[in-house]
Every structure is written in C-alpha cells, then in structure tokens.
Amino acid sequence: MAPLLQLTNVTKSFGAVRALRGVSFALQPGEVHALLGENGAGKSTLIKVITGAHAPDDGTIEIGGQTITHLSPNKARTLGIACIYQQPALFPDLSVAENIALRLERTSLLHRVRRSQRDTHARELLHRIGAEIDPAAEVRSLSMPEQQLVEIACALGAGAKIVIMDEPTASLTQKEQHLLFAVVRDLRTHGVGVIYISHRLEEIFALADRVTVLRDGETVGTNRVDEINETALIRMMVGREVTAIYPPARNTPGETRLALRGLGCAASGVRGIDLELRAGEIVGLAGLVGAGRTELAQTLFGLTPADAGEIQLGGQTVRIDNPRTAVAHGIAYVPEDRRRHGVILEMPIAANITMAIHSQIFPGGWLRSAAERKLTLDFMRDLEVKAAGPQAPGGSLSGGNQQKVALARWLATQPRLLILDEPTQGVDVGAKSEIYKIIRQLAAEGLAVLMISSDLPEVLGMSDRVVVMRGGTIVAEYPRGAEAHEVMAAALGQKQREAA
Questions:
Q1: Which tens digits make up the pLDDT trace of 313-360?
Q2: Which residues pair with 215 in a beta bridge?
Q3: Which candidate, 265, 266, 49, places its Cα nearest to that of 162?
C-alpha cells in the first residue's frame, strides 16, 4: 500500500540558515505518526512544507503515490491535508457555525446562505467529537480548548485524509484530552493518517504507532513506539542524556513572604483561599483546567482585585487593586499565554525585557540605550537565552527562549514573590530542564515561587509543597514526595484538604 505522504530528502534554507537538511518522512493510511524534536529542530518548517506554506529547496513530496510539485496551501487542502495548530486560526467575531462554513462551503455570487443547514451541519460535526458547543456562539466567547475543538470539527468536515495536530492538548482539560484521543483513534480506523506533534511523551506512547525525531533540521531516526522507551527518545531529541530533568532542592524556606486569609473574588470565582508561602519555597498549584488557579494568580496580581479576605506580604496587610500596585509590592507574574501576554513578538528582546522597568532604566524619559543593552545582555547570559542579540525580535526565538525572556522581564523588577503560570507549556524537554534549573536557583536565592502547572509530573518534581484547587478554592495540600494518584484524587473532588 502506497503511503499517504512520502517526503524524501527535503531541504529548506532561509538565507544562511538551513532549517531542513535532507529530511525523509512517511505516513501510512490509518497511522498515527508522532513528530518530535526540540524547539528549533525543524518541525514547524517541515509542517509548512507539507501544508504548502513553504516550497522546499530540494527533495520530493509524494501524496497518495503521486509526486507533487508547486504545492500551495489551497492545493494541499484540495489533496486532503488539514492542520490543527496550537493557536486556533478562527474569526473571533463570527459564530462557530459561520467559521466552520467558511472552511467548508464552496460559494458563488448566487449562493444562498441557509443558516439552519449551517447550524445543523456544525452541530453534527461537533457532536461527532463529543464537543458540547453551541453553533450560534461567537468564537470570542469560547475558551482556548473549545476553539481547538472547533478546528478539529473543521478538519473532520473537510474529509481530510492527512491531519496534522500541532500540540493539540496544550490547553485541553483531561476530559477534553480523552475526547481528542477518541477522535484520533476514530480517524485511524477510517484510514486517515495523523501526524501528531507533542512535547508530552506520555501522549506519544498512548496514541502513536511510529515516532520520527528531528534534531537540528535532520532526521535522527524513525521507530515503532513499542520498540523504544522515553529515555531513548529524549536522548535522540537533545543529543545527550537528561537523567535529572528536575534538579534537586537546595533551598531552605525562610520567613513567611505571602499569607492569604479567606481571600475571595466574586468576579473570578475564587473563594476562601487560605495559603502561606515562604521565602525560598516553591509551592506548586495543581488542579484541573477551570479549577481557579489562573484566577487566583490574577487576583494576587491585581488584574481581578480581591473583594473578600486579606493579603499579607511580609506580615503587612496590603490592598492590591492593579498590577502597578502588585509590582510595587514585589510581586511578579509570568502569564500562561506567552504569545498574547508574555512576549511582544514584533519587539526586540531588549524592549521586552525592560518593559516593566521603564521608569528605572529611563529616568525622566531619557533613553539610555547602553544601560538597556547591558541589562539585556546580563539576563541573556544568566538565563542562557539563545538569540542573535538584544535587538533580535521576540518572534525569532524558540518557545523556550521566549519563556526565558518573559521571565527576565519580571526578574528585572527584582520581585520577592514570583508567580509562574504554566512555565513550560509548549516547551521541549531540553528547554524544560533549563527552565527548571532557573526556577530552582531563584528559590535558592530566597525568591518565593508560586508555580501553576497542569503537568502533574512537573508539579511533583519541582514543588516543596503541592496545593490542589477545585471549584475556586483549595481542597488539599501535600508535602514534597506526594503521590500522583493522591493529587489527582483531590483535583477530581475525592479528597478534602489535608495538613501538609
């Protein structure tokens, strides 16, 4: 049987940078083929070649046994290729049904819009993947996971033969992940080939038939998933052993830095929060998506100010009504969505890093380019940011380096409390290890760290204490060494708060 897709010795360069170096890849009908590699390994470029966004410099592309030349995005769609990206490409002011119709309907000047048929078709596609989404709802009102499910419905409706999923579970709840896995398995039984990209290795072993690893734009190898283990995959990706992804704790917690007493915010659903965090301590905030973890972080940072209870910093009761006040009190917040709220992609690294300290580095409004450059170079050195230089745009960086720049911006404010929301989301395993070392070093220097993560191994591996939220409040607390099943049971509502 001919492969659905066959790439042979594909190369692609951008100026002097060779993004792909003779990459070969094959996808069989009814196969889930995982594509792995660190950020910058060439995965995104390869996907753009497959979808017609980039033309290869050399090599061949065969689809359904036929050699394809001059592949364009429109031609790729016609040939049955669909790509579901981590960041959905939907029109926010249109309804779900209208977004699906734009992808699937063939229109003309005389085409008559039948809204009831659109809604019915959209509802059928959403029902097929188990998504309880109103076709009439504006996309703007949907959560990121719901938008991803709409993207999947579009691909199903288009009758795609080759479906590419780029980090599809990055912002999905556990229930939505199970729905997605069921959809992928259903596609496989119907002969559809799925290219699955994820940094979560447990998903690869649960879902994929084969896995191909890229490193530095080259194919390192292709293996059956049942013939390889996690350690070997990591070694293939990073070119070295990563035996201790989570660095050992070296910090001894000091005085109480943050104390919350009955904290609540009606607007965000946070209620009755009692929590203490000490200097030099990393507290992991676990829970399912929607449990209230990000909402608590936003309340602490003044984005949605508390309307009940109290916040104590260093033993003093404070009122935090806005981010400016939070920063003045030594609180820093690195948000979950680095592309929307963490790094301004069009701006240089230097501008990104100094954004929160303009009044300090530019007193009186006078530009001090030398001071900005020195500060930026210091952070790039200390955090090992890999970039062409301080003036390189944020969008030119890999995900891991973008995360380091977002972190540097807030470290520049010299905070006493650092809130990290999903600090390694969408980051490859090598960059994760680097970020973990940075977090551990910051704690060792006396910084209090509140870390929100949906990656349970990350929470357990990095935290001195684990606090579990559900329904907007804290339901359990565990010391270092807690078992994963205990934390998950609490997140699912099967256990109430325990003393740490």
A1: 999 999 999 999 999 999 999 988 666 667 888 888 998 888 888 777
A2: 218
A3: 49
- In the block, tokens 């196969």 appear at 31
Helices marked H in 317-368: 323-328, 349-354, 358-361
Whole-angstrom CA distances from 206 to 184, 293, 359, 489 are 11, 27, 51, 21
Strands 210-215 and 193-197: unpaired
Q: For the chain, what are the domain ranges?
A: 5-238, 256-492
Q: What is the pLDDT of residues 192-239, one digit of tens each?
A: 999 999 877 888 999 999 999 998 889 999 999 999 988 888 778 766
The structure tokens listed for 397 are: 């960086």
User: Please, what CATH class does the domain formed by 5-238 belong to?
Assistant: alpha beta
Look up residue 278 and give its amino acid. R
Class of domain 256-492: alpha beta
What is the model's pTM?
Answer: 0.62
Share of the chain above pLDDT 90, in %: 45
Give the pLDDT confidence score for residue 499 in this predicted structure: 43
Give me 283's structure tokens.
């507290």
Torsion sign, CA atoms 101, 104, 108, 111: negative
Residues 264, 305: contact at Cβ < 8 Å?
Answer: no
50 backbone dihedrals φ, ψ, rounded to 5°: -65, -35
Quick one: tokens of 365?
């409004």
Separation CA 304–CA 264 (nearest Å)? 10
**Contact present, 135 and 118 (Cβ < 8 Å):** yes
Tokens of 265: 């915010």
User: Are the C-beta atoms of 468 and 293 separated by less than 8 Å?
Assistant: no
Pairing assessment for the beta strands 448-452 and 417-421 based on DSSP bridges: parallel
Q: What six digits make up the tokens of 333?
A: 């917040």
Integer-rounded Cα Rg, in Å, for the chain is: 24
The number of residues making up the chain comes to: 500
Give phi and psi for 31, each to the nearest 5: -120, 140
Helices (H) and strands (E) in the chain — how many of each? 17, 20
Q: 427 and 39 in contact (C-beta within 8 Å)?
A: yes
CA distance 238 to 40: 11
